[in-house]
Amino acid sequence: MKKEAIAILCAGGPAPGINTVIGSVTKVFLNAGYRVLGINEGYKTLFTDKTKYDELNFEFADTVFSRGGSALQMSRYKPKDSEFSTTFFIKENIKLLVTIGGDDTASTANRLAKFLAENNLKVTNIHVPKTIDNDLPLPEGSPTFGYQSAKEEGVRLATTIYEDARASGNWFILSAMGREAGHLAVGIGTACHMPMIIIPEMFNKTKITFDKITRMIISSMVKRKILGIQYGLAIVSEGVFHFMNDEEIEGTGINFTYDDHGHPELGNVSKSHIFNMLVQRKLKKLDLTIRSRPNEIGYELRCCRPIAFDLSYATLLGNGVMKLFQDGVTGCMVTADPAGNISPLFLKDVEDENGKVKIRLVNINSERTQLIFHNNLHFIKKEDYQAAKKYLLNPEEYDFYKILNW
User: Fold this and answer.
1) Active-site residue, selected from the candidate residues 133, 135, 384, 399
2) 59 sits in which H/E element
3) In CATH, what class is 5-146+306-349?
4) Residue-wise pLDDT tens digits, 336-368
5) Which of 45, 168, 215, 258 has its CA 20 to 30 A from that of 83?
6) Long-range contacts of the stretch 111-114 (C-beta < 8 A, 24+)
7) Which residues on adjacent β-strands are paired with residue 6?
8) pTM of the entire structure?
């Protein structure tokens, strides 16, 4: 029988710090006498007779740990339960499967752990929560690794765009990655003092529509005009699309391609272009001349070099994998509190009725979030109606609080 081994698998999209986790886990388990196998293409070939993997050594780990991207090729492939197999785990004498990914990767790992247990194969499963979206259900105050580095890069880019806005007297409408949650948009928007930040969690008392998003952006534009400021930035989380139906999305007039189920393929279009186009259409109807340009903030963030926070944090999580393994814990995420204490977060405790890991949304009612939205942004409110009538016939329709029903 082969020497005991562990396997490391990365799935989903890249996030800064993946290589730090790979390098840290590899080093600590090599030191403990295990073989370390790095699986390529995520779950895609894991259950076939041609699993793509490399045996990892110290030199590899020491070379990649500080780099962006992923030294192990990733994939979004989600296997069905019927595809699961014990072959690779038995053949390579795998004692631990370390998965690095987001909610889909964790959910698949959870299903796989149950399958292996049902087949009397003891393989520990520990998940390392990764996503720039910061939307995994970790304890309050604990980010997913990759988020802080992605936010830092997003702030660097957005700060440069803000300088362009000031220099040219323009507005820019940005779209930020985020799927269902608005952590990245609110993080970047707050750090850059953007006058308008729009995330899906804001619509806790009303339905999300493009019309409301458009009026909120124009509300900020007009408020800045009242203040004598002719430029600005608005950032919108792409997560707003998750809560719209196909009719609302198709109503934008954008020519979409469609998937096999007849749904618009949003990944093929620029979200910021949609928001900017709708704003410009509305401005023309209002006879307001305000120039704006779209800009996407997304893929530029995923493979940037991890900042010191994520280099340290991902190293701690990698070491935490060994601690939980030695403690005999399985079927969990490794978490570290702000003090650096490692503890397991069991997947069974954070999954929904379908076995999918729940999403952590921005806590819109927290004091931190409320302070940002009530104090940092520029928008029309009741006391601005008289001044706003210079630009709008019905300023109350652009009242930020009325639009959100806050």
Assistant:
1) 133
2) helix 58-64
3) alpha beta
4) 988 899 999 987 888 777 777 788 999 999 999
5) 258
6) 111/81, 111/84, 111/355, 112/84, 113/330, 113/331, 113/347
7) 36, 96
8) 0.91
Report domain extents, the chain.
5-146+306-349, 150-302+365-404
- Residue 337 catalytic? no
Element containing residue 28 per DSSP (H, E): helix 18-31
Q: Which residues contact 222 (CB under 8 A, 6 or more apart)?
A: 288, 380, 388, 391, 392, 395, 398
| CB-CB contact of 108 with 307 (8 Å) | no
Domain 150-302+365-404 fold is Rossmann fold (3.40.50)
According to DSSP, the residues that pair with 10 across neighbouring strands are: 100
Residues in the chain: 406
**Sign of torsion over alpha carbons 39, 6, 69, 132:** positive
DSSP string across 193-225: T-SEEE-GGG-SSS---HHHHHHHHHHHHHHHH
Whole-angstrom distance, CA of residue 314 vs CA of residue 308: 10
Q: Is 350:133 a contact under the CB 8 Å cutoff?
A: no
Query: What tens digit of pLDDT does each residue of 242-274 get?
Result: 888 777 777 777 777 777 666 677 677 788 999
